[in-house]
Amino acid sequence: MNSTVLIFPGGMPRAQDYLQKCLREKRNVVGASSLGYDAARDQYPLWTHLPYVTDPGFNEALKEVVKNFGVSEIYTANLVVWNHLSGILGTLLPDVALANTSPVDEVLSGYRSALSKASTILNSPLPLASSVLPSDMISEIETASLVRYSDMIPGMCDDDKFRALIEIARCSVQGDIVEIGSWWGKSAFILSSLSRSFELGNVLCVDPWSNEHLIQNEEIVDSGSLQVDAEEALIVFQIGLQAFNCNHINYQRMTSVEASECYGKGLSVYTEAFGETEYAGRISILHIDGNHAYEAVKADVLAWSKFVSQDGWVIIDDYIWPYGDGPQRIGDHFLEEHQSRIAASFVMGSALFIQLHSSCRECF
């Protein structure tokens, strides 16, 4: 008989998450509960009953379940059950292991990690040669909150880029934050949080949320694009950001060039998810992270850089990118052609950060 994992009690939310993980991995699973009827039983391929751990017959009942189902591991999200099992398994069932660490450690690990990362960020500030006097740094708790909740949104934003985003937000003037290419919304969440922390301005996310617009003529990238769903990505974006919206976040589901034609002073954007948001028509931070093909990045820069305020920032994401050189070629061209308008520039993580002296109205 193949080894089986026992999930007990099977009805807890984290137990059901673990069930789905086991099913994806095609593991044998049996669920158990001490309730007379547990609605979760229908989710499990196999199900059994166990008495409460305080019942004198629990240990013998557990031995019987292990024998009957070939159990080699037990997962429990219940702290009392976990403590009891951790104390008895070594002698009662030495061949059976607990599949997880203490439920307290499990549930708090993300918060502990966020606090540790926040401490590292605050203890190693990034010195910028910026033309703007930096605002006071956000607190350790605020930084940890930003880390924790951004970790819960899918997407890619490495630690170095994360640090750089905090630092340039400190050294930013007031104005809109515009992101070209938001997809699931990780960096949009970070920027929207920083906009509130440093009182910068409202956040506008521009993305067609269309699989067609993901095509970059890089076979290895385009093959991955076929495995994601644009409609689902927009829903994930809405879920991730909606709870944090204070009438300062919204989006336009259209191409970058189309959205730039609408942008300007007095722009008002309404969506069912976020309501109505007003924009100033001048950009404090422009984050370009759309299609990475050369012509697409060029179009984004042409369409939007003219709106960047004096002392505003332009970020070209994936300037260092192993799958193509579109962002790097555009970034290098921008740096070369507008040296006199650049107050500061640096590469951190995979992104190029540029601070302008004045609005850049003709970029190519």
Automatic annotation (TrEMBL):
GO MF term (any one): methyltransferase activity
Any one of the GO BP annotations: methylation
Alphabetized InterPro entries for the sequence: SAM-dependent_MTases_sf (IPR029063)
Domain of life: Bacteria
Keyword Methyltransferase (UniProt): yes
Gene3D superfamilies attached to this UniProt entry: Vaccinia Virus protein VP39
Name this protein carries in UniProt: Methyltransferase domain-containing protein
Upper classification of the organism: Bacteria, Pseudomonadati, Pseudomonadota, Candidatius Mariprofundia, Mariprofundales
